[in-house]
Write a structure and sequence with these properties.
Length: 279
């Protein structure tokens, strides 16, 4: 039986919207013109492709491709190597900071939700941290840790922690009261009920929050690398901003969107399999 047309409508709408965005971007490129530095205010697709090949200037040599600052020509092979290398460096910093932020956020959310004393002690300061301008804190982390990986990882961890802590508090608070009531009526103690009933019941919602925070983690990693890191996608973005390379900035924006989307889909699939019992 042929499915109703309405079931395919969302796919056609999404495809049409994507085409409209692409066409609108290219039109904006021709309308916006160039800036004082001679580069496009809105880089077109040719500008982005040229910027992609120009990434070979960020390759430090090896695997049969020389450094451009030592006379080697720009090449797509060097650009691919450079992209893989710098993406890997940013990914490692992001993974370390994200893991630390998630661990602290989840544990603190569980402790605060359990203990009234800790709730009074930590709840207000932790929520107040949500109001801090995250990007404005980058110079502070730079002053505290310099341009070391430690400073970048701590900044990513703090950014992720603020969001994960809120997700954790809300996920635990949204657990239906009858779960705890049923466990208590069957003779389970308060601590056992909290550990074996409430926290597992909160895990599906918390898992969704952790998946969403991945995109924020990638953005924080790029921002953290503006602190003078000599490698990573943020380092390339800093140089592109300094030299007004709008094509490179657009390319990196697409890269971050793609990394965030892929990591979100993988995390959502993992969370879905890990919490199948809750379906």
């Amino acid at each position: 039986m042929k499915p109703p047309d309405g079931e395919h409508a969302p796919k056609w709408i999404a495809a049409g919207l994507l085409v409209a965005i692409v066409a609108g971007w290219e039109i904006a490129h021709h309308v916006a013109g160039d800036n004082l530095a001679g580069t496009s205010n809105v880089p077109g697709f040719k500008d982005i492709m040229d910027a992609a090949k120009n990434l070979s200037t960020e390759w430090r040599g090896g695997f049969g491709v020389g450094r451009t600052d030592e006379g080697a020509p720009e090449s797509w092979r060097g650009a691919i190597y450079a992209l893989i290398w710098h993406t890997g460096v940013t990914g490692l910093r992001m993974a370390a900071g994200y893991s630390l932020g998630v661990a602290v956020g989840v544990v603190l959310a569980a402790l605060v939700s359990w203990s009234p004393f800790l709730r009074r002690l930590v709840y207000v300061p932790a929520h107040a941290s949500r109001m801090l301008p995250i990007l404005a804190l980058i110079p502070l982390f730079g002053l505290w840790s310099g341009n070391s990986d430690t400073g970048a990882i701590l900044f990513i961890a703090f950014t992720v922690f603020v969001q994960v802590f809120t997700f954790g508090i809300n996920a635990i608070a949204n657990v239906a009261p009858h779960y705890a009531q049923s466990a208590l009526s069957l003779g389970a103690g308060r601590l056992r009920t909290y550990l074996q009933v409430i926290l597992p019941a909160a895990s599906p919602e918390l898992g969704s929050g952790l998946s969403l925070s991945l995109a924020l983690g990638w953005s924080a990693a790029i921002s953290a690398e503006f602190n003078g890191q000599q490698s990573g996608l943020g380092h390339i973005a800093y140089l592109a901003q300094y030299f007004t390379r709008t094509g490179t900035l657009a390319l990196l924006a697409v890269m971050v969107i793609a990394l965030g989307a892929v990591s979100f889909l993988l995390a959502r699939a993992f969370v879905g399999r890990a919490t199948r019992w809750a379906e």
